[in-house]
Amino acid sequence: MPVQVQAVAAAVNEVAGLLAAHDEPLELADGLVHRCGELLGAGAVGVLVEDARQRLQLLASTSGTAEELELFQLEADEGPCRDSHRTGAHVECADAADLARRWPGLAPVAARRGVVALHAEPLVVAGRTIGALGVFREREGALDAVERDVLRAMASLGAVGITQLERVAAGLRVQEQLQRALDSRVVLEQAKGVLAERHGISPEEAFTRLRTTARTARRRLHDVAREVVGGAPDGDAAA
Question: Do residues 67 and 58 make contact, with C-beta atoms less than 8 angstroms apart?
Fold first, then answer.
């Protein structure tokens, strides 16, 4: 299905709204990957960013598939996001055969998840690549020109947005604030596990509950997650 101009405009407005209303990269990154997935017809999207030691870490993902593929790339040091971060260029893999040829270790992981096409766009700020946005699709084929433009625009918006948030936040350097966001993600994963076990739901459903609670109460996602990990009952943190 072709990318619709109205959908692109709505996605950009939402991510821009997150930038204006929140001061944490985790919230911005979550909005970025979900809107990107909707626009490009991909159920799995993830974003990697450099930590304080300039090592790539997973900041946000739309699903367990995206999380597994991104984490594998970090552990095995191979894959489209790794390559995009190294080169500062768009990386595209349109079919399973090309995937197996270029990244033989990643190929069986992708196949198990039903992913056959992978695309990555670098996050570039002031000429420096600070991460990569990865899109993983269950149908073969290259991105068309419009889709490439959309992916590039979302990556640019994410890179600029994350950097701007850091500069606003108490004068902290980009790397320091990103490290805080990465640390927050650890707490978020723990909270997802607590809610998943408590209610017998999937990690994705648990995350949706946490995010909804945070937005409804106009609170930081990290603060809500921390309370859940600390043992807060559902009524006080996440329903």
Answer: yes
